[in-house]
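Here is one chain, start to finish.
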Amino acid sequence: MLIRDIIKNNNLEEVFSNVKIGLEKEGQRILEDGTISKSDHPKVFGIRHEHPYIQTDFAESQVELITTPENSERDVLRILNAVHEVTLKNMPADEFIWPLSIPAILPDESEIRVAQFEKKSDVEYREYLVEKYGKYKQMVSGIHYNFQLDDKFMEKVAEITKKDLVDVKNEIYLKLARQFIRYQWILIYLYGASPLAEDKYFTNGLKPSDYVRSLRTSRYGYVNDEDIKVSYSSLEKYIEDITGYVKNGKLIAEKEFYSSVRFRGADTIVKFPKEGIKYMEFRLFDLNPFAPFGILEKDIRFVHLFLKTLVWLEEADKDTSESLGYEYSENVALAHPFNNIPYEDEGVWFLNKMKELVEELGLFDSDVELIDEKINELRSPELTLGAKLLSEYEKDNNMIRVGVELAKKYKEQALQEYYSLSAYDNMELSTQAVIEDAIKNGIKVTVIDENDQFIRLENKDHVEYVKNGNMTSKDSYISPLIMENKVVTKKVLDEKGFRVPKGYEVSSLEDALQKFNYIKNKPIVIKPKSTNFGLGITIFKNGTSSIDNYSKAIEFALKEDKDILIEEFIEGTEYRFFVIEGKTEAVLLRVPANVVGDGKHTIRQLVDMKNANPLRGDAKKTPLKKIELGEIEKLQLNEQGLTFESILPENKVAYLRENSNISTGGDSIDMTDSVHDSYKKLAVEITDAMMAKVCGVDLIIPDITEEMNGENYGVIEANFNPMMMMHIYPHSGKSRRLSLNVLKMLFPERDIK
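Its structure:
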């Protein structure tokens, strides 16, 4: 089957370009001195063998991080990035993930704990491996690269060749396996990064005489006994060989066959002739210690193109491809990282074929540049990953230092912006929090529309959709419509007996000016009829006699909506109550945007100093909002007899806003444990009136410690899609992880932690 001709003659370039890629990354949990951790796999991740992202491999200390299959290198690395960060955030503070394939310090075998799976059979299998192979070689970690060609491509090939679809899949994947074995030496040369190990690692006393490219992929790695020979010449022969070894006891199960290539997609290989191979697993890759997650995006791309080229090219000699491939691989794996290899010309030829594929498929110029980079590495071995690692080691002959420094660096990077996930930092923090908690709890996450903050969550067959962190199927469509309209909200609450502020609805400056004499010198609030995030709101809590200031406030509000409200200002302190599924889970005091004087700096300078806090930003990617210096702030300062250039006396507070929204620069202070339960109950009743499951209720309360008596409060507004991050990461006070409450509401069958 001439795949290249079929693609070119039938315009299949697009479907051939589509693939799915998944990664599995192993790594040892270590302590600060480089020794392997003796602690249990973190219980916060739940049942490990059921977790879609975070499991353990051979040892209790060996975490295995798994991505979902994705359509691009960028997306699969983002998932790995996020899973990596979630893992590091939930490990003990004194633990790190070792970034190299082979541990620098191997404990006594008696101290290595086999992974304590809930299923007895999983533990027994690992105990069997201990008896057969010992523990040390199984402590080696790496990257598994899963690869699937598009089913539509397979269907087209079957249609064109008039062959059975299952036969086409099996034939193409078998060819890919043989081709991979034949040319895998190139990947070992480029990505081999396990040059040495402690003497105790070599249990039989045999070891290389010098540094090597990749112990892990050589005969010294975690490989089957030499008498295990499995042929890829046909699917029938492949199945016959493996099942034969299982029957005669040389392998305990099919999964004990540790090839660099494995066929996947069925619970047993004997089903492949009827069901077809679904995808392939390539187990060749050492961890890249210079990549925070063990592999770089550009190298995921290179391997992708490498595999495509193997399918694209015809086999030179099917009968010798496997034997030659194994010979070349072993020689390259055991070569010194600084030495040239005798197969350089073949490698350059193959990489030029990769460039031809890129050009004929109309792929990216960056792909050609990437391949040229690897051609340069073939000609200059000191540029390869293995050589760079060895050069770093030889600075002081201390692999412990190299690994620990990198491990600490990567954990520090992961925790630097502890309130976010760097892979999804383009999304709102509330959405990021839900993604992070879903990953931690083993709920699958798919970002459907990044710009619109839309995600899908899956627990087995249970699927939920979430927008903006807490907009879910649990709320009816009418609820946000009611809360978006302040007049409707006010009327609904008034009819149900809740105390709401009295006021007027106007649609123009002219209408508003007609009301001025009614409200002059009275405490008032001017706000858009339909708005959120505190936009267009002005508060005159002491009233105003200035028709100019009143007019400006009206115009600010009219910029946000064609209808605005002029309402009485209710005396007291404003609090935000976060209600979810019939319970008040958090209460926040929001202090309006302010600065405190020091007797030296102007208000403008004090604002700049406060805005320098790393928690302040746009309040979408950061928990707090930077304070702005606009017309509203200018107006509020004017009411206090101040300007931006005023120097505040020491400890004097200047308020730049009267409204206390975090989205306009306010401070957040958690008050949940101080609020009288009667107000928490009131917030739930207001939420019920809004027919909502999730609601942010803003109440004015003179004293939160006193029981409500029916008059000592005022309802400012009810908010759909209330901000969660100001509760999760308050300016001061206890954190309330509301994203967990969202998951508990959506997945009551799970024990969300």
